[in-house]
Amino acid sequence: MDHGGPASAQEGARTGGALDLGTVVISANRTPTDAAKVGSAVTVIDRATLERARETYLKDYLDRVPGLNFAQIGGPGGLTTVMMRGANAAYIMVRIDGIEVSDPTKTQTAAALEHMLVGDVERIEILRGSQSALYGGTAVAGVIDITTRRADGPGVSHRAAVEVGSFGTVSGRYGLSAATETSEVNLSIERNKTDGISSADSRAGNREKDGYDNTTFSANAATRLNEAFRVFGALRYSRHDSAFDDFVWGVGPTDEIKGTPRNRTIGEDAGVRVGADLDLLDGRWKNTLSVQHYDTQSTTWGGYPGHYDGDRTKLEYLGSFRLNDMLAFSFGADYARETARSSEGLSGSIDNAGAFAQASLEPIAGLTLTGALRNDHHSTFGDHPTARATAAYRLFDGTKLRASWGTGFRPPSAYELFAPIYGNRTLKPEESRSLDAGIDQSFWDGRLTLSATVFKLDTRDLIQFAYDTGAGSYRYLQVPGLSQRRGIELAGKVQALDWLALDGSYTFTQAEQADGSPLLRVPRHKATVGATVTAIEKTTVSVRGTWVDDMRDTDYSVILPDFSSPVRKLPAYFLLDATVTYRLTDTFDLTLRGRNLLDQRYQTVWGYGTPGASVYAGLSARF
Max alpha carbon distance in the chain (Å)? Predict the structure, then answer.
């Protein structure tokens, strides 16, 4: 079941591009499903791929995935939003070991990916397309499902790593896994500290560095009491300290004025989930019951002082029943309450109860059809039904045709509804429809895999922060009409030689608001290409390039007569990264990695800087 760490799912795809059809996928149907039977577009990333990449921040790896892009305010720790098929983080559910990690105090409830380190991650599934019928309202664009480290087998193992590098960066992590035939426990602690860069772009004369410090602890455990009953739990805690620059309307981001307090935010996030799996009827009827709690707090000093406190408690039941070889069912129910409070006067709570059912039918060999219905009862907006349908057809050996359709809704966040000055209690949920179709093809005994997808995502009555002429101030408003996102996702990988692997992807996204203007911070073109070389004994060399073009954002240095600011096109950029890993012994690896080696000066958010060329050296151990 969907408890965040099934052993059967640990054999994943080896890159973040095209999907191997032999992979087991959990997120697509909330129960383990062969990739060949999944009708949704999904990318699976395994531990080996993550370790080879040697990234520090989760977002830096996810940025390679087709359909995803990131916009960040400054360097490490800066506010980050992920875009999936042109929809921002408020439309994407992010889970870690089954814990929903979105922040209820944000202006739009969303996960803070800028604070997520990658050192304890075992596996990532990125499920694209509307999944509200399975996961609820926040999964309008898709789901990012993360599993933390699992034991390789019975026994005790340790892992450790240290790294130093540019911008005064120092990081270290340690992990422990212990397992028997029926039980396991995994612990991980990681710290990353950097002096950072100027959040406000240095090309505008800003020189003050904005540092970042992150400590993250995670743990998971499970024990099987008998053949039918298993209990499990997961815990996660993160403390992060980030500095940031001033923002002046009509000027844009800028260093703090000398002599004034530094802008700084210290935050803590903690999540816990416990539950049990019960298998009945010789394993044909599987049940999972769990409860989770997530709490986030942050305090900001300087020019924007404030304290924010949010939490979410959720009780969830998931079940699946296989009637025969042709027909299976998935079903579930959940209840969640989330609250948001701030020193600014924000105070609100939202309750939501939901239930879903899905049927999976294999009427003929090679064809899998699913249909799902869900109803959510929101404490403010009442009932809201959603639906999803998928089809996967294995046309030939190594060829899969797939399609998915779904409806979704995003209710306004607590901030959008209840915040003083900016909140608007007249807002209604956004509604959406999603459709995609594609093909996954493998050749050469699986050494070459290709994937192509066309997609569209339409959202009605988008909620945006805009100037309200009636109120004479900025606030959250409903924008009538249909916002449209259309695009193509291409991905491929090939084991060209025993010592050479290549991969690449391209995403085209056309994202427009109801009036035809572009949705901001969504690149029209994004391409990645990578090569991994193992020609030299004990040495692995990885090189990767990323090209981004035609992305737009608001230029806040200019104020127009209607108090708005113009939209500008951000310059295109190309990033070149490289990583070299040398195995010193069976225990120790030495790593040298370079990022933005061409020293590109670029922006993903207007007026904010990004790190230039940087180099890092590290030592890792397994014992």
Answer: 74
Tens of pLDDT along 315-372?
999 999 999 999 999 999 999 999 999 998 999 999 999 999 999 999 999 999 999 9
C-alpha 302/C-alpha 318 separation (Å) is 46
- Helices H / strands E in the chain, number of each: 4, 37
On whether the CB atoms of residues 271 and 294 are closer than 8 A, the answer is yes
**2 inside domain:** no
In this structure, what CATH number is given to the domain that contains residue 286? Answer: 2.40.170.20
Paired with 224 in beta bridges are 230
Chain-centre distance of CA 392, in angstroms? 25
Domain that holds residue 163: 7-622
Gap between the Cα atoms of 405 and 460, Å rounded:
16
How many structural domains does the chain have? 1
pTM: 0.94
pLDDT in tens, 140-156: 999 999 999 999 999 99
Q: How far apart are CA 105 and CA 107, in angstroms?
A: 7
* Strand 24-25 to 99-100 pairing: unpaired
445: alpha, beta or left? (left if phi > 0; alpha if psi -120 to 50): left
With a CB cutoff of 8 Å and minimum separation 6, the contacts of 530 are: 15, 64, 502, 503, 504, 542, 543, 544, 545
Amino acid, single-letter form, for residue 509: T
